[in-house]
């Protein structure tokens, strides 16, 4: 499990897209799992979780398009 002290979508997206499967924790936001290079919503999701997943997955797609 990787701990992120700050919510930086770009850094989180790089980590998620490289490892492909695992868990992360973002201080102030919460814990997440990721699979197939995308962040997954937690079971008890709140608005902040939805926003974080949307931003990070958007950043992952941007990274993939840059390398394609």
Task: Compute the separation of the termini in Å.
Answer: 28 Å
Spatial strand arrangement across the major sheet: 1-2-3-4
Mean pLDDT: 94
What's the Cα radius of gyration?
Answer: 11 Å
| CATH topology category name | so0334 like fold
Question: Count the helices. How many?
Answer: 2
Question: What's a quick, concise take on this entry?
Answer:
It is built from two helices and four strands; from the N terminus they run βαβββα. It has helices at 9-19, 47-67; strands spanning 2-4, 21-26, 30-35, 38-40. It has a four-stranded mixed β-sheet with strand order 1-2-3-4.
Account of the protein in words:
It is a single chain. With 68 residues, the protein is α+β, with helices and mostly antiparallel strands. The chain has a single domain (2-67), classed as so0334 like fold, CATH 3.30.1910.10. 47% of the residues lie in helices and 26% in strands. The chain has a 4-stranded mixed β-sheet with strand order 1-2-3-4. A hairpin with a 3-residue loop joins strand 2 and strand 3. The longest helix has 21 residues, at 47-67. The chain is globular, with a radius of gyration of 11 Å. The termini are far apart. The model has no long low-confidence stretch (mean pLDDT 94).
């Amino acid at each position: 499990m990787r701990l992120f002290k700050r919510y930086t979508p770009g850094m989180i997206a790089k980590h998620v897209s490289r490892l492909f499967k695992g868990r992360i924790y973002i201080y102030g936001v919460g814990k997440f799992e990721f699979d197939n290079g995308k962040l997954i919503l937690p079971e008890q999701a709140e608005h902040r979780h939805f926003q974080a997943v949307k931003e990070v997955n958007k950043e992952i797609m941007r990274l993939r398009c840059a390398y394609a």
